[in-house]
Amino acid sequence: MPQEMARRGSTWRPDSYLMGVQALARSLLAAQAQHPLLVMYTPDSLSLEAVAALQLEACQLLPVERYVPAGHHDAGQYKLQLYGECWNKLRIWELEEQYERLAYLDADMLVLRNIDHLFALPPGFYAAPDCTAGRQSQAERDACPLFSPERPHYFNAGFFLVTPSRAELARFQSLLAAGAVRIGGYAEQDLLNEVLHGSRQEFSAPQDTWRPLPHTFNAQKGIRRHHPQLWRQHWHAVAVVHYTDAKPWQEGHSDHAEYQDLVQLWWRVFHSGRPALTGGSAARGPPPPAPSA
Ligand SMILES: [Mn+2]
Questions:
Q1: How far apart are CA 187 and CA 170, in angstroms?
Q2: Residue 281 lies in a domain
Q3: How would you class 78 by CB atoms within 10 Å of its CB: exposed for 0-12, middle for 13-18, buried for 19 or more?
Q4: How far away, in angstroms, is 247 Cα from ligand 1 center?
Q5: 196 C-alpha vs ligand 1 centroid, how far in Å?
Q6: What is the whole-number distance in angstroms between the Cα of residue 158 and the centre of ligand 1?
Q7: Residue 277 lies in a domain
Q8: For residue 1, what pLDDT band results from cuts at 50, 70 and 90?
Q9: 157 CA distance to ligand 1 centroid (A)?
Q10: What is the CATH number of the domain that holds 73?
Q11: Mind telling me which InterPro entries this protein's record contains (predicted)?
């Protein structure tokens, strides 16, 4: 039943990604990131205790209003109900006065290597190919974008580099309102892929087409299951690991069995980082302390 499929897995609830953000902040500190982590959240998604906990991390907090996509969407067709929450990330495009460029990271990620150099890339929207090998249809599995590095046809929106632009957001909104964009199981990720793909001139001029980064900037853990050889080949170079599907902090989840080492890595990072007492000082602070025992 499609409806049941859509409801499979996690139901979103407040604070459910708090530990993810804490681990991400600590991983950035350990990677000596020179740019602060800005945590964008809707006030209904974090309790006051969670906000207080994040104020102890080296990050800045930015409450935003919920983003409601224009047009008619059947949220029941999202692969997971919580993908409906992901529309809120479009608020990033509103930050044009404050930021020339932002790197968006999902809260279920760890930064293993410094990625500051990405900010020096030529202008453009950058993302890494999505691994669709675990998708339901055979066609999607056969056409996994990981194997067309020159021109992958679909990116994962868990990580991207963007220049905020209110005009661009207004354009997204009007395309949604007009029903011009096909939104499938992946909410805002489908929108961004369709609009920035470059194959339809009414959506994007060639210079606005998304530019591929190596998948090592968004190493979805499922890649290891579906393409073990590729994972082995590139693991040493992985800059950002993405804990898609089961989250490491969901203790006892049956999916962890296969990813024990990656889950343990996540816990090591989570426990190793001590909250900075001043907060928000990742950019100028001293090097991170050695992990405590
Ligand atoms: Mn994610």
A1: 17
A2: no
A3: buried
A4: 9
A5: 20
A6: 5
A7: no
A8: very low
A9: 8
A10: 3.90.550.10
A11: Glyco_trans_8 (IPR002495), GNT1/Glycosyltrans_8 (IPR050587), Nucleotide-diphossugar_trans (IPR029044)
Q: Among residues of the chain, what percentage have pLDDT more than 70?
A: 87
* Cβ atoms within 10 Å, residue 15: 14
pTM of the predicted model as reported, rounded to 2 decimal places: 0.86
φ/ψ of 82, rounded to 5, equals: -70, -10
Rounded to the nearest whole angstrom, what is the distance from the C-alpha of residue 220 to the centroid of ligand 1? 8
Please give the distance, rounded to the nearest whole angstrom, from the Cα atom of residue 42 to the centre of ligand 1.
17
Distances, alpha carbon 82 to alpha carbons 7, 16, 54, 209, 263, in Å? 9, 11, 22, 27, 22
CA of 190 to the centre of ligand 1 (A): 14
pLDDT tens string 2-37: 333 333 445 567 899 999 999 999 999 999 999 999
Which domain range does residue 23 map to? Answer: 2-271
Residue 209 Cα to ligand 1 midpoint, Å, equals 23
Residue 167 covered by a domain: yes
